[in-house]
Every structure is written in structure tokens, then in C-alpha cells.
Amino acid sequence: MSAGDWQAIGVTLRLAAVTTLVLLALGTPLAWWLARTRSGAATWIESLVALPLVLPPTVLGFYLLVWMGPQGGVGRALAALNLPPLVFSFWGLIVASVISSLPFMVQPLRDAFAAIPPRVLDAAATLRAPPLDAFFSVAVPLARRGFLSALTLTFAHTVGEFGVVLMVGGNIPGATRVLSIAIYDHAEAMNHSAAHVLAGGLLLASFAALLALNLASRKRTVIGA
Amino acid sequence: MLSRRHVIGVSALCGAGVVRAQAAGRLTIAAASDLRFALDEALQPFRAAQRGASIDVVYGASGKLATQLRNGAPFDVFLSADIALARELDDAGLATDGPRVYAVGRLAAWSTHAELGRLPLAALVRDSRVKRFAIANPEHAPYGQRAMQALQSQGLQGDVQPKLVLGDNVSQAATFIETGAAQAGLIAHSLVLSPALAGKGAWTLIPEAWHAALEQALVITRRAADNPLAAAFVRHLEAPPTRELLRRNGFALPEQVRREPSDSVNKP
Fold first, then answer.
1. Which fold has domain B25-105+213-248?
2. SS3 string of A153-168?
3. CA-CA 20 to 30 A from B204: which of A70, B4, B80, B119?
4. Which residues of A touch B92 (CB under 8 A)?
5. A contacts of B10 (beta carbons < 8 Å)
6. Which residues of chain A, if any, have pLDDT below 50?
7. Tens digits of per-residue pLDDT, B162-215?
8. Do β-strands B202-205 and B54-60 pair in parallel, antiparallel, or remain unpaired?
9. Is B107-210 a domain of CATH 3.40.190.10?
10. Would you say the ipTM is above 0.85?
């Protein structure tokens, strides 16, 4: 594997890690709200959250390119503030990945939170636990499997991203050339052995992640009760 | 147990790791796909001479690279397979030097089946063994556009239409043929001669009269106006040893390096 390949792996892992952490921070409160709210807006928000699951990546990539590009709203705002553009940058990829992997973080968390019986949280309240304390000491441990699922799926999905990255990334080595693009590049250069190594490695790593997730999530059967 | 403090700490580290200090010498070249092997070879002595500099190449269809440049892609030098794209960028004020013609490309019909590759174009397209015929996408790849022109000039458009597959760029079209997914196609002569494909099957050069010329021109982008590496690279590309290398790799050379007078008056 060449130095360029290792660099692509590095970019991919950094992208996936930062995206997962950002989504953990943003997605947890959103999932909590979706799980517990009675508001009618929830259905609309849930549909928006699920949108990246069904949209072709090129649609998302196209809109992001327009929006973050020099003619778009975000692009112009950044230029006015003398900040570097988001297109063709690592941070642009973070924005794209956060949007594209949003459902993978929010949905498992929402389902896990929704499965917590309300009386458990009521009990915590009657024991004078402030809401935030109740959240971290009661809800989070009970939603453990949901967190595990959300983190793993978000990370793995970001590692596997291609369409969106291709549209807004520009294949810049060290900044936006992720693993999936590197494989595409090798295939185009007819460098089949290099493509095999990377693709095979990615396949094994993804499978291992999913296997680990499923093993860790296996419910233990409760006898009696 | 992962505490909040751990999460914040790790994310700060990730963020810091991402903000890299700008390398002292950094050059990002956007190059047409037909240059893939020739440019890699040509860059070897240049990289050796510019020790410590970070030199990256992004290959793609010229049209696509030009669009990315327009949208702010951080390229310092753009080696287009079509001078028209270089001129457009210059007209848009995105170039500080150029367009400069560095080579003239040629189209070749190629098949991994030698007996097919030796057929004249009309016979090749109409042959029943050729179920898929690959070219680059005419919409944004100059070689694809010229391939379409060549096919049209020979009245083969109707014959090829049901068999046509489009590669994102001329390299991808070559991959389709090399893997056998397409039995034949029209790709860059430079790719046919490249180490990855040389000796596989057979090829026929397409007469230049069948399509518009493939004048390949470069520009140094406005972004690289003060980048000494960009100027050094162009000098290296136009030097006799590199030009000989290009000729060996299937390019024709301009009689002398021509520099187009630029239309835009305002140069920053």
C-alpha cells in the first residue's frame, strides 16, 4: 500500500470520527425530543431526518455544492467573512457527512429512548433528580444498545461514503481523498492490485464492525419472569 | 465509562489533527485523464528536484475539473485536454498564465481482442462481437466529444448508439475496455501506449481529419500567481526532455510552445 493509500485511510478515519462525534452531540438531543414529544411537528422532523436514507447521494451532493460554492448562500457568507471556502475542504466534507449520516445516529437513538418506560424517568424525578442528571444516569445506560448501534452505523456509513464526497470533495489528497475515492482512482488507473487491497480491506473492516455490533447487541434470554 | 469530558477532549484532538499547517512548497495539479501515466512519469524528476515540496495531482475529465476550478477548487495548474476549456477559464479571469499548448492528443480505437482492434473503425463498430463500445462522456470529456465527432463524421452514430457506454472520463472508458465490459472503444492514444495497457490487444490511430483537434493547453490559476512551484512545473513541462517523454507517450508536440495572448486585461 502506498503512502497515498495510508493518507486516504487517515482522512477517512478522521472524517468518520469527527462526523460521529458531531452527530452524537447534535443527534442525541434531537432523538430525545423525537422520542418524548407529543408535538405534531415531530412527524415532519422525522421525515426530514430520514431523507438522506432515500435520496441519491448525488442529490445531496449537488445541493451542497451549490449552497457551499462561491455563488451559494454559505459560500458567499464565508467569503464575506474572509474565511476559507467549504467546498473541496475537509470541513465541507464534515458538513456533508453530518447531513448524510444523520438518520444513522438519530433513528437508533430515538428508538432506544422511546423504549424507556416513562415511569422510570418519573421515578427519577420523584427522587429529585434534575432532568439532565436523570438523562445521564438513567436514560443513557438504558439506551446503551441504541448508542452502540448509532455510533457504529454512523461511523461505518461515513467511512463508506462516496457519492456526496465525489460531488463536493474534489479528490484532494490529504484533505478530501477518502478511501472510497482512492479505490475509484486506482480502478480508473487500471491499478487493480491496489484497488483490490483497499476494497478488500474496507469490506473486511465493515463486516467486522457489523459483526461486533450484532454480537454485542444480542439479547440474553431471560428465563422465568 | 466515557464521560462528557472525554468526548470533548477527543473531539478537540480530532479537530486539531485536521488543521494542518500549510506545507512550505505545495503544488496541486489538475490534469486531464489522458495524462495519467505520462504525467506521473514526467513528475518523477521534478519531484526529486523539489525535495520537501508537496506535489499532488488530481486526474479527471477536463470539463469536470474546469467546473470544479470555477467553484473554487484549490488547483494551482490545470492541464486541460482541450484548449477551449483553458480559454474559458482565462476569459473568466481565473488564470494568471496561459493558455499554453503543451501537447496535441490523438484518438485511438482499441480492443483487447487483437483481431477486433485491427479493424477499421466502421467495421469495428458494426461487428457483431462488439456488444458494448466505450467512449468518455462527451458532455465533459474532450476525448469523448472528439470520439463522438469521429463516429459522426464516418456516419456511424446510428450503429454505435445501441452499444454505447460512457465513461466518466477517458480513463474510465479505458477501464471498461480493459476489463472486457466493453469489447472495444475510442480512447486516448496516450492511454493505449501506457504501461497498464500496452501490449494488450490491438489499436488503430484515428485520422485527425475525423474530429476537431485535441489541442491540450494548460493554465496557471490565479490562486497560484505567487507560487514559484507552479512556474517551475510549467518550465519543466515545456523543457525538451519532458516534451520527448510526451511524444513517447503518444502525444504530438506543438511546433513550438505557443502562448495565447490573453483576453483579460485585469491581472491581479
1. D-Maltodextrin-Binding Protein; domain 2 (3.40.190)
2. HHHHHHHCCCHHHHHH
3. B80
4. none
5. 17, 21
6. 225
7. 999 999 899 999 999 998 889 999 999 999 999 889 889 999 999 999 999 999
8. unpaired
9. yes
10. no
